[in-house]
């Protein structure tokens, strides 16, 4: 059976390569053909071995939910409305607490509050392709990402996808991708210099024919 899944977040060749690898690793899936322009994936599979629901769930796990749904399968519109409602309640509680605290400050004294290190407005989560092979690659990629200023970093060995959370006031996707390339790993933004790649442990020297999507070659010294 062949079914066409309309999905979100297919941005580049790296995305298509990730979807193809992830779905074709599922028992019962014969082939997966992503189309970035149409935002869809044609999947040929054995109905007796795997169902549409399982395939949709796998797509969502990889970061490509069905169009109009979040990773939990609910309507994106409902999710946003719920989030906005909760944020409104939180803001009201914070405002009430601030006013209450201000009322307790003795006359003639000024209460100073520390400026928050980060705000919701400057926090972002991004996912992009980073080619690698093994658990050692995972440790290196995640450490380099954290050293580049991210708050969290998680690389998936099966999909070659790295998910980072960071403060845009402190770092950027470009800076993280450049740091990863300096460490020897091709990614969606930059291709590592040949010398950096050759310095990787032999088990970490991944197949560079994979479509990481990066077109710029990062040859800046690692200590810059």
Question: Can you tell me about this structure?
Answer:
The protein is flat and about 70 Å long. It has two domains: 2-61, Alpha-Beta Plaits; 120-218, 2-Layer Sandwich (Alpha-Beta Plaits). Residues 71-83 have low confidence and may be disordered. The protein is 35% helix and 19% strand. The chain has helices spanning 13-24, 52-61, 76-103, 135-147, 173-182, 194-198, and strands spanning 2-6, 29-35, 40-45, 123-129, 152-156, 161-167, 190-192, 216-218. The protein has 224 residues and is α+β, with helices and mostly antiparallel strands.
Features:
224 residues; Alpha-Beta Plaits; 3-stranded antiparallel sheet; 6 helices; 2 domains; alpha+beta; single chain
Care to give the gist of this entry?
With 224 residues, the protein is of the alpha+beta class.
Quickly name the level 1 CATH class of the largest domain: Alpha Beta
CATH topology of the largest domain: Alpha-Beta Plaits
> Helix and strand string, N-terminal first?
EHEEHHEHEEHEHE
Class of secondary structure makeup: alpha+beta
Biggest sheet overview: 3 strands, antiparallel
**Portion in beta strands:** 15-25%
Basic shape: flat
CATH architecture of the largest domain: 2-Layer Sandwich
Number of strands: 8
Q: Radius of gyration, Cα only, in angstroms?
A: 22 Å
Strand order of the largest sheet: 1-3-2
**What's the tally of helices?**
6
Structural domain count: 2
Return the average pLDDT rounded to an integer: 81
Low-confidence parts, pLDDT < 50 over ≥5 residues?
71-83
Beginning-to-end CA distance, first to last residue: 53 Å
- Helix content bin: 25-40%
């Amino acid at each position: 059976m062949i079914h066409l899944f309309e999905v979100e977040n297919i941005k580049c060749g790296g995305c298509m390569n990730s979807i193809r690898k992830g779905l074709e690793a599922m028992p019962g899936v014969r082939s997966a053909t992503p189309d970035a322009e149409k935002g869809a994936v044609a999947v040929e599979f054995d109905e007796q071995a795997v169902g549409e629901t399982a395939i949709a769930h796998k797509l969502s796990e990889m970061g490509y939910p069905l169009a109009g749904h979040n990773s939990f399968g609910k309507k994106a519109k409902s999710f946003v409305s719920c989030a906005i409602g909760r944020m409104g309640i939180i803001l009201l509680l914070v405002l009430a607490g601030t006013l209450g605290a201000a009322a307790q400050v003795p006359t003639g004294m000024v209460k100073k509050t520390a400026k928050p290190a980060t705000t919701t407005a400057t926090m972002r989560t991004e996912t992009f392709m980073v080619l690698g092979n093994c658990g050692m690659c995972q440790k290196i990629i995640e450490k380099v990402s954290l050293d580049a200023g991210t708050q969290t970093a998680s690389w998936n060995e099966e999909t070659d996808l790295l998910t980072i959370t960071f403060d845009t006031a402190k770092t950027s996707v470009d800076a993280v991708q450049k740091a990863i390339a300096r460490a020897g790993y091709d990614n969606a933004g930059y291709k590592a210099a040949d010398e950096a790649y050759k310095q990787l442990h032999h088990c970490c020297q991944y197949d560079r024919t994979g479509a990481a999507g990066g077109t710029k070659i990062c040859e800046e010294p690692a200590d810059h």
